[in-house]
Amino acid sequence: MSIVPKETIEVIAQSVGISNLPADVSAALAPDAEYRLRELMQEAIKCTRHAKRTVLTANDVDSALSLRNVESVYGFASDDPLWFKRDLGHMDLFYFDDREVDFKEIIEAPLPKAPLDAGVVAHWLAIKGVQPAIPENPPIDAISSPTENKSTEHVKDDGLPVDIKLPVKHILSRELQMYFDKIANSAYVFWA
Fold first, then answer.
1. d(Cα 56, Cα 48) in Å, to the nearest integer?
2. Model confidence pLDDT, tens digit, residues 27-82
């Protein structure tokens, strides 16, 4: 006795346009279909194990089909497993609950905002220890040296004085400066 009944083969034959399939042909095709399904599921389970997962997904079945040089099944390309529900009237009938979509609602829905284009901007904080006066850098006045009356100029709301640290001129070693020059030249040649 096959797990795939001959009635299932007859229904599949009717769905593809074969209306008068003899009973002996459907009875002969049922064990072959079961064998092919078992073979496919064993390959899909191997794909699941190789991916170190415990849940069989549609991508595993697609991988098993591609290993057998069979075209993939379209429409089930999800990494999430399908959650089947049991039909109340029939104990052996399972389905997965798809939400019905009204095309009118989709067409009339407002379009989402277009995502911003990704971009990269080069910015130098300091060149040879000197901070250039460009809009991206803070103004020179904000980091100028504090005056003699620093306690009256820089005071928190609670009355405590605030110490402002002056910018430190960083000195690079000769090797780091040579490395920087090579990288800067290669970046300039690449972007030019």
1. 6
2. 899 999 999 999 999 999 999 999 999 888 888 888 999 999 888 877 666 666 66
Smallest CA-to-CA distance from 61 within 85, 45, 50, 49 is with 45
Four-residue CA torsion sign, 171, 173, 174, 176 = negative
Q: Per-residue b/e over 133-168, b at no fewer than 16 CB within 10 Å?
A: eeeeeeeeeeeeeeeeeeeeeeeeeeeeeeeeeeee
**C-alpha separations of 112 from 15, 116, 117 in Å:** 39, 12, 15
Spatial contact of 55 and 48, defined as CB atoms under 8 Å apart: yes
Asked if residues 80 and 57 have their Cβ atoms less than 8 Å apart, the reply is yes
Q: Could you report the per-residue pLDDT of 75-125, keeping only the tens digit for each?
A: 666 666 667 788 888 877 888 777 788 889 889 989 888 877 878 877 777
From residue 36, how far is each of 64, 68, 186 by CA, in Å?
A: 12, 11, 58
pTM of the model: 0.42
Q: In the structure encoding, which two tokens stand for residue 106, read together?
A: 């989709």
User: Tokens 């959650």 — which residue?
Assistant: 83
- Max CA separation in the chain (angstroms): 106
Residue 161, token pair as written in the block: 């004085």
Sequence-distant (≥ 6) Cβ neighbours of residue 79 within 8 angstroms: 57, 59
